[in-house]
Amino acid sequence: MAVIPWIEPDDGGVHLSVRVQPRASRNEVVGTHGDALKIRLTAPPVDGAANDALIKFLAKRLGCGRSTISIEHGYSGRLKRLWIPDMGVEEARRALLA
User: Fold this and answer.
1) Contact 92, 14 (CB under 8 A)
2) What is the pairing mode between strands 28-33 and 13-21?
3) From residue 46, how far is each of 5, 12, 14, 30, 78 by CA, in Å?
4) pLDDT one-digit tens code per residue, 27-40
5) Tens digit of pLDDT for each residue in 50-97?
6) 7-97, CATH topology level
7) Which of 36, 51, 58, 70 is deepest in the core (most CB within 10 A)?
């Protein structure tokens, strides 16, 4: 299996490195940006709206509950590190790049 720089396995789940582009025309995964997965979101970066939209978007793509996804680092920046429990690397990769 090839190493995917934006997914890091950990006991019981995965960590995702994500770069967010707010105020886009639609919500979508657009590829990578350095060692992060780049995601465009329609929400503005105001009052946590982009973070909420990111969690909602990822929960839908990954097929998990919104409450299971947490932002570990980067709450107020574009580069974020998220924790998704009960998810494997391949499962996350397939869901996000499909």
Assistant:
1) yes
2) unpaired
3) 28, 32, 27, 22, 12
4) 999 999 999 999 99
5) 999 999 999 999 999 999 999 999 999 999 999 999 999 999 999 999
6) Conserved Hypothetical Protein Mth637; Chain: A; (3.30.1200)
7) 58
